[in-house]
Design brief:
With 144 residues, the protein is of the alpha/beta class. Helices cover 49% and strands 12% of the residues. It has one domain (35-137): Rhodanese-like domain (Oxidized Rhodanese, domain 1, 3-Layer(aba) Sandwich), CATH 3.40.250. The protein has a five-stranded parallel beta sheet with strand order 1-5-4-2-3. Helix 6 (108-118) links the parallel strand 4 and strand 5.
């Protein structure tokens, strides 16, 4: 009986690997990957600062509350409150073809929001997990 279970598990594993390997060359992969969403890359304050200089089209989403945003934010950032019921709908209005970075105050909310953002087909998605605290600690400017 144990041998039979082992053979079944092995066969299922091989079939699963074969299907995955076979699907890599299937037409429409870009469409299926886009439908599946995107993966974010974690960046630090210095990396975000360099990207802001080198890539003027970079979209920065500050997911803190409007009150936190008003106290100071990265220049050019747009505020989409993660705690707002319409967060996902607001994210859906962002141009997913533009490189996009997102952050909160210290990484807690942005860590939770990461799953929501990764559900969208962003071409480039960056998670600045240190948030506005790390930005300020690195001596980077905030605007009101």
């Amino acid at each position: 009986m144990k041998n039979w279970i082992f053979v079944c598990v092995l066969a299922l594993g091989l079939v699963g690997c074969r299907e995955k390997a076979g699907s890599e060359n299937s037409p429409g992969d870009a469409e299926s990957e886009a439908a599946a969403g995107s993966q974010s890359t974690e960046i630090k304050a210095d990396e975000l600062a360099e990207m802001l200089q080198a890539r003027p089209g970079l979209v920065v989403i500050d997911i803190r509350t409007p009150a936190e945003f008003a106290q100071g934010h990265i220049e050019g950032a747009i505020n989409i409150d993660f705690l707002d019921a319409g967060f996902a709908e607001a994210i859906a209005g962002i141009d997913t073809g533009a490189p996009t970075a997102f952050h909160c105050r210290s990484g807690g909310r942005s860590g939770q929001a990461e799953r929501v953002l990764e559900a969208f087909p962003f071409a480039e998605l960056y998670h600045f997990s240190g948030g506005s605290n790390a930005w300020s600690d690195a001596g980077k400017p905030m605007v009101k």
